[in-house]
Design brief:
By secondary structure, the protein is of the alpha+beta class. It contains 4 helices and 9 strands, in the order αββααβββββββα. It has helices at residues 2-18, 51-60, 71-75, 172-200; strands spanning 27-35, 44-50, 93-95, 98-105, 112-118, 127-131, 136-140, 150-156, 161-163. A hairpin with a 2-residue loop joins strand 3 and strand 4 (98-105). Helix 1 (2-18) packs antiparallel against helix 4. The model is unreliable at 19-23 (pLDDT under 50).
């Protein structure tokens, strides 16, 4: 019995040791997937960066440059805002007196649009914009969550609805409790079987 408990303890220790240590990342990724575009209509998707975000990154990387709208990104190499300068739009977007620089995004092979954001920026006030001849829809993501350095977004094109994918999340404490309960059940079954053997002999 002691040998069984020792083996189980060693197994649990090995499981705990193999769980990766989460390190603080300098950036997270906004990841948007477009769904339900039934007519396969062409559109353009833009990341809208507010002036406050751009100035935050400028100060973070220690650059001595002034914010001058889209030209800030076109004329300068700014670490953490690594964008194709040809995708930066000349025309800005404004909302509630705030100016946003627009960056045209291109989808990857899985039709997912991504953009890197510095993790220490305290707000989620950047926006996404879908635009074509039929629509001009602004996505506000200020109440969205970042998990494992990714902010996942699903955009229903036909309904103009955005949401975050539903996930079943089991935290480490719950997982450890489940493992312990399983181990206890295994010990109980082995112990009962041994007791029956001893009675029969």
């Amino acid at each position: 019995m002691k040998k069984i408990i020792t083996i189980i303890f060693i197994c649990m220790l090995m499981i705990i040791m193999t769980i990766p240590v989460v390190k603080a990342s300098s950036t997270y990724t906004i990841e948007l997937e477009v769904t339900k575009n039934k007519k396969d209509e062409p559109f353009e998707l833009y990341m809208l960066l507010p002036e406050s975000y751009i100035t935050h990154v400028i100060h973070k990387v220690g650059l001595d440059i002034e914010y001058i709208g889209p030209e800030t990104l076109i004329q300068n190499e700014i670490l953490f805002i690594d964008v194709d300068k040809s995708k930066v739009q000349d025309k800005t977007y404004s909302e509630d007196g705030i100016e946003y620089v627009q960056i045209l995004l291109e989808p990857d092979v899985n039709n997912v649009y991504t953009f890197e954001i510095v993790a220490d920026y305290p707000k989620m006030d950047m926006k996404l914009r879908v635009k074509n001849d039929e629509k001009d829809y602004i996505m506000h993501i200020d109440n969205f969550k970042v998990e494992n350095d990714v902010c996942q977004i699903e955009y229903n094109y036909d309904k103009n609805q955005i949401k975050q994918p539903t996930k079943i999340v089991i935290n480490f404490g719950t997982l450890l409790l489940i493992i312990i309960l399983v181990m206890i059940i295994i010990i109980a079954i082995i112990s009962k079987a041994k007791t029956k053997e001893e009675i029969n002999t």
